[in-house]
Design goal:
The chain has 33 helices and two strands. Strand 1 and strand 2 form a beta hairpin. The chain is globular. With 595 residues, the protein is mainly α. It is 69% helix and 2% strand. The longest helix has 22 residues. Helix 13 packs parallel to helix 15 and helix 31 runs antiparallel to helix 32. Strands 1-2 form a two-stranded antiparallel sheet.
Length: 595
């Protein structure tokens, strides 16, 4: 029988639907009428349905449904007298999900109802999945509600649908309904509803579900346990997460990693390091969590030290490791360490150029913009991320016109920018003092690229207009923003008011800054300078006196330097460096030589 089906399948290229034609079945039957072992008409009908389903399934697997629409195969089969079965609809709906064909899916839904398969849990599950994949949660719930007695699988699918569409309240209510109708949830259902409480961020709900799990006797695995730890962390209770972690008798690496991740997410570095050191077995994810966690809270030296420790361990860094480590190098200004990691990357971890945007960013932030440009020019992967990186980095180094050239090239390559790209473009216009181009690009965000300007984009435009002396236009833009201006925007505008000696707007801006942060002396200092330049010394001295009486101080500036792979930081009037005396002595010698 299988050989017969395969033979018929190989005939398909000669005529696409010839295997569906009844006369062919008749010919085979007549030819074998004397053979008692010949396949019956029913066997051929089954073979044709099997082939019919196979053709539809292949379209779903290949994803090419524009050249050979799966619905066309379905309609042709119906015309030749074939009757669909449950698999026909499941394959057909899967193929339609790949193509996002909502209208055709609704036609299939109607056919499911007409042929009596609406009561099939598997077909209904496929319908539900189709509607959820296209964002139609209402239709998905209708499919679920029309099932007279949905099984546990369908309940779980519906709950997961609400979770995927970030509707945790509806998912939780459905879980409560499960309990009311007497359906006993299994481990998969429990894992799904545990994640619901994390989305809600409700610690009480998380504890209630945890209590239910313990009382119900449902067997839980490491995945459910790690999900519970994660949920407690997402609900803001590291204490409950750690308490549950300690109760687990058999902890695998996933559970350990989840607890470490939550410790670092809550900035509890000591607990994270303690857990990491206590792990009976580590994996690459354990190292990655630690490196990323320390980098995220600004502990860049510790992150780099962990990377070096990982190198001498039995574990080989992967792409995620290098992404976190390059980020730490960029933020810490560790060019030497970053260049060493680059040489490590070149071995085999960046063949597709997936790390190029991080390398570009690292070299740029460490001051080597020429190397950043070289990496971009040699990159095989000139996608949105690498192009955005080079545009923003060139702008940061003051090469505004060159950044705009790359943006022009980006448009020519038909790569659409995102919000981050446009921040770099508008900043480049500001630094290059290209006011007309800046206005044009700002207006094109919505009209051309479909991007709604955010506060960062308004800030760039205020900076551009302020630099060019268009203070009135900049002020009108600030007042017309759809959101409240922050300290950065008002600060940028106040700096321009001082440059152009606009006392009136300077006073208004300084008051706005004081409302946003009464303890920040910067606004008072800037306004005092404006008064001094306008020979209004009484007002200038009054503000200086107010700063002194209130004890307001500016945050000290910080400089850093990399020596032999280690980054040393120095604050103003800071004598805490271990080599403070030697540094001062050397500086005095240099000063004498210069004199």
């Amino acid at each position: 029988m299988r050989a017969c089906i395969q033979q018929r399948f190989h005939q398909l290229p000669h005529t696409r639907f010839s295997f569906l034609h009844p006369p062919r079945i008749h010919a085979y039957t007549v030819a074998n009428v004397e053979n008692p072992f010949a396949p019956s008409r029913e066997d051929y009908a089954y073979a044709n349905v099997f082939l019919w389903n196979t053709m539809i399934r292949k379209q779903a697997e290949n994803g090419d449904i524009t050249r050979d629409p799966p619905l066309l195969y379905y309609i042709q089969g119906l015309r030749t007298g074939l009757r669909p079965n449950g698999q026909t609809f499941m394959y057909l709906l899967k193929a339609l999900v790949c193509g996002k064909n909502v209208n055709e899916g609704e036609e299939v839904h109607a056919s499911v109802v007409r042929t009596g398969f609406a009561s099939s849990e598997f077909v209904s599950g496929a319908l539900l999945g189709f509607y959820v994949a296209n964002g139609f949660i209402g239709q998905a719930r209708q499919v679920f509600d029309e099932m007279p007695q949905p099984g546990l699988v369908l309940w779980i699918l519906m709950i997961r649908a609400y979770v995927c569409l970030t509707l945790p309240g509806e998912a939780l209510e459905l879980f409560r309904t499960i309990r009311r109708v007497g359906v006993m949830p299994d481990m998969v259902a429990v894992a799904t509803v545990v994640s619901v409480s994390g989305l809600l961020g409700d610690l009480g709900v998380a504890k209630t579900i945890h209590c239910f799990i313990e009382k119900s006797g449902v067997e839980v695995d490491a995945f459910v346990r790690s999900t519970l730890i994660n949920t407690y962390g997402e609900c803001g209770s590291l204490t409950d997460a750690y308490s549950f972690f300690q109760e687990i008798a058999m902890k695998n690496t996933v559970v350990w990693n989840t607890m470490i991740h939550q410790s670092l997410e809550h900035s509890n570095l000591d607990l994270g390091k303690q857990l990491f050191d206590s792990m009976p077995e580590r994996d690459v994810a354990s190292w990655n969590s630690m490196i990323r966690g320390f980098a995220n809270v600004g502990q860049y030296e510790e992150a780099l030290a962990l990377f070096h420790d990982m190198e001498i361990s039995v574990f080989r860094p992967n792409t995620l490791t290098l992404l976190s480590t390059l980020s730490a190098c960029a933020s810490h200004g560790a060019l030497e360490a970053g260049a060493w990691i680059h040489s490590y990357v070149n071995i085999d971890l960046n063949q597709d150029g997936s790390l190029d945007s991080s390398l570009i960013d690292m070299y740029s932030k460490c001051g080597d913009i020429a190397k950043a440009i070289q990496i971009f020019e040699e990159s095989p992967r000139r996608d949105l991320f690498t192009r955005t990186s080079i545009i923003c980095d060139l702008e940061m180094h003051g090469h505004g016109k060159k950044a705009l050239c790359y943006f022009f090239e980006m448009n020519e390559s038909q790569v659409s920018p995102d919000e981050a790209t446009m921040v770099g473009v508008l900043s480049a216009c500001a630094h290059a003092r290209l006011i007309e181009q800046g206005r044009r690009y700002f207006q094109s965000m919505e009209k051309v690229f479909g991007l709604v300007p955010k506060i960062e984009h308004y800030g760039c435009m205020v900076d551009l207009l302020s630099r060019m002396g268009c203070l009135k236009e900049a002020y009108d833009l600030i007042m017309g923003m759809p959101m409240e201006a922050n300290e950065i925007i008002w600060g940028s505008f106040l700096s321009a008011c001082r440059v152009y000696n606009n006392v009136e707007l300077g006073e208004v801006t300084a008051r706005r800054l004081l409302e946003l942060d009464p303890r920040d002396p910067w606004g008072r200092v800037m306004l005092s300078n404006i008064y001094a330049e306008e020979v209004k010394y009484d007002r200038s001295m009054g503000l200086r006196k107010e700063i002194k009486e209130k004890g307001l101080k500016k945050s000290p500036g910080c400089s850093s330097i990399e020596v032999n792979g280690s980054v040393h930081g120095f604050l103003v009037e800071d004598n805490s460096h271990p080599c403070y005396n030697e540094i001062n002595s050397t500086l005095e010698k240099i000063e004498k030589l210069m004199n």
